[in-house]
Design a protein that fits this description.
Helix content is 25%, strand content 25%. The protein has 228 residues and is an alpha+beta fold. A five-stranded mixed β-sheet has the order 3-9-8-6-7, with helices on both faces.
Length: 228
């Protein structure tokens, strides 16, 4: 199976909760990104599924997306983005206290991508774990980093979002297949200068809508659907 949707509008949305940062504030000290070289345009998708550049652009604004080549791992994308963020922040991996990775497409169920990155970057002092919250994983990662810094349990946290979703796409479903691509982004979060930093967080979940976007029975790190 692959990523599918069963969209149904709701009028009784669960209200969001606002969390004000208590303690010292945090801020993003550096950012990094990495995307595979292969670019798949809307016109490429026209050749393998029932859709058009006009249909995709009008509904999503997307004109192209990056796809990883066969054999490229989520770990590779995440590590490249992480190193770029560290360079941008002027820090070494050995400075890190924590590594958080948000992904729905890990290379395997365990060990976590975060632990693998800790090894790849040589950051022995960093505690590391993955977050699974689909599209919101990076935001939850930033919020978690902020909480640890606010409580003075960490000073330098690396937050990464990385996906290789092209191998999970259902090309018979243009509602989802046209949206997703592959890539990674990372941010180094540190204590903020006086008068700056994150002020609060607004988070919410609605488990009643779980059936609207689903992905099941995909062998992690091995599934390879037909690609354009």
């Amino acid at each position: 199976m692959a990523i599918t949707t069963a969209y149904k509008a709701r009028s009784d949305a669960v209200p969001l909760r606002s969390f004000k940062t208590k303690g010292r504030r945090s801020a993003i000290a550096g950012m990094g990104v990495y995307a595979p070289d292969k670019i798949v345009t809307n016109f490429d998708l026209e050749k393998v599924m029932e859709t058009s550049d006009k249909w995709i652009t009008e509904r999503t604004g997307i004109r192209a997306r990056h796809f990883a080549e066969p054999g490229t791992t989520t770990l590779e994308l995440a590590t490249r983005a992480a190193q770029s963020a560290l360079d941008n922040a002027g820090l070494k991996a050995s400075d890190l206290d924590m590594i958080l990775v948000g992904t729905s497409s890990p290379d395997g169920p365990f060990p976590s991508i975060a632990c693998r990155i800790q090894d790849e970057l040589d950051a022995p002092g960093a505690v590391a774990w993955d977050l699974l919250a689909a599209c919101t994983s990076f935001m939850y990662g930033l919020s978690t980093a902020d909480s640890y810094i606010a409580s003075e349990r960490a000073d330098k946290v690396l937050v990464i979002g990385a996906e290789v979703l092209s191998r999970m796409l259902d090309y018979s479903n243009r509602g989802t297949a046209v949206i997703f691509g592959d890539g990674a982004g990372a941010a180094v979060v540190t204590p903020a200068p006086e008068g700056a930093g994150f002020l609060s967080w607004c988070l919410g979940s609605d488990g009643r809508g779980y059936e609207q976007v689903t992905c099941g029975n995909v062998p992690l790190g091995a599934y390879a659907a037909k690609e354009p």
